């Protein structure tokens, strides 16, 4: 709820819409329909308040009109606020005057949406985060894998890799790349290349900026410069496309290959390009191992120890967070996040 509220307060309507859409759809029920309508209506009114008539018309024509007859009455009330008459029609309206103070209006609007969200049966059981001790997962990992001299990374860093693997295996791609960007322990070069080929220049630039800056070295400067050049060329090409149709995809793939080579040669990134070898589903297996011990142990201790503190003595430990003792380690590669364990014949298990 806080993340959604922050998007409202900053006027990031697409971000708020995308977040809400992950939990409910327009057609789910009348509460959801009303939520989406109010979101787009607020966006519409703020465009009017800024006298951005073109945007207001675009919102009305392409967003507000998508709503069905359930909201037809409100749409009809907005219908006259179009084209050249938008500004003069609304400036004297009492309704628009409440939109003049953006911060206070968004604050009230956020509270209004929160109340609507709480009444939506689809969202009601998703609004309270369960009570969890601070740093619970890190504390658990520290218990089951005590620090030893052989560990070349901190436990926290190894936990981040385990979480990245989990997100990748569960196909939580957006969260995966967001965590990579924020923790800066692993640079997914394939994701970067994919962004370049798909012409998501801003996304590629933002991802790269988390790991290196333009003035760090000549490799970084070259990559950033090439991204800016591609953005410029695309803007120019879009104006020429109708007269001279072309297929830019091949050129983008070639450029992405060059950028990949530059990134691999960049000394700032070299240690972040290889994902360590980790047994499949390692984090889930570690947690299961701990819980398989904890649940019966807790039940026994609670039954027999009265009000005494429950002991953690005897909790199972592992010497390596990334591998079970019997697994065979394989060379790290950025091409895969999980390395399969091998059987005695050198063949991957479960095949």
TrEMBL record:
Keyword Repeat: yes
Start and end residues of each CTLH domain: 1-55, 185-243
BP-aspect Gene Ontology terms: regulation of DNA-templated transcription
Region (Disordered): 329-351
Keyword Translocase: no
Tree of life domain: Eukaryota
Keywords: Repeat, WD repeat
Residues annotated as transmembrane: none
PANTHER family: TOPLESS-RELATED PROTEIN 1-RELATED, TRANSDUCIN FAMILY PROTEIN _ WD-40 REPEAT FAMILY PROTEIN
Stated name of the protein: CTLH domain-containing protein
Species this chain originates from: Dipteronia dyeriana
């Amino acid at each position: 709820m806080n993340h959604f509220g922050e998007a409202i307060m900053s006027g990031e309507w697409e971000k708020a819409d995308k977040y809400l859409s992950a939990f409910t759809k327009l057609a789910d029920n009348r509460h959801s329909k009303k939520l989406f309508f109010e979101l787009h209506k607020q966006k519409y009114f703020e465009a009017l308040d800024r006298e951005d008539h073109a945007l207001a018309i675009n919102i009305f024509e392409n967003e507000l009109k998508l709503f069905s007859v359930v909201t037809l009455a409100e749409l009809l009330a907005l219908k006259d606020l179009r084209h050249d008459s938008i500004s003069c029609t609304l400036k004297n309206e009492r309704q628009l005057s409440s939109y003049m103070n953006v911060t206070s209006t968004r604050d009230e609007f956020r509270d209004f949406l929160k109340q609507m969200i709480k009444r939506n049966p689809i969202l009601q059981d998703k609004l309270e985060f369960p009570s969890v001790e601070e740093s619970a997962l890190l504390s658990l990992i520290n218990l089951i894998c005590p620090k030893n001299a052989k560990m070349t990374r901190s436990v926290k860093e190894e936990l981040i890799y385990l979480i990245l693997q989990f997100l990748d295996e569960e196909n939580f791609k957006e969260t995966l790349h967001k965590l990579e960007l924020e923790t800066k322990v692993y640079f997914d070069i394939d994701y970067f290349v994919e962004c370049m080929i798909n012409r998501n220049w801003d996304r590629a630039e933002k991802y790269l900026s988390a790991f290196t800056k333009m003035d760090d070295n000549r490799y970084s400067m070259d990559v950033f410069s090439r991204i800016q050049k591609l953005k410029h060329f695309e803007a120019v090409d879009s104006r020429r496309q109708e007269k001279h149709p072309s297929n830019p995809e091949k050129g983008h793939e070639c450029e992405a290959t060059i950028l990949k080579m530059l990134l691999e040669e960049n000394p700032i990134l070299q240690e972040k390009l290889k994902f360590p070898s980790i047994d499949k589903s390692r984090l889930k297996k570690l947690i299961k191992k701990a819980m398989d011990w904890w649940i019966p142990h807790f039940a026994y201790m609670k039954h027999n120890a009265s009000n005494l503190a429950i002991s953690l003595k005897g909790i199972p430990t592992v010497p390596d967070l990334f591998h079970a003792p019997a697994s065979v380690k394989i060379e790290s590669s950025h091409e895969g996040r999980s390395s399969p364990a091998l059987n005695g014949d050198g063949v991957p298990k479960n095949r």
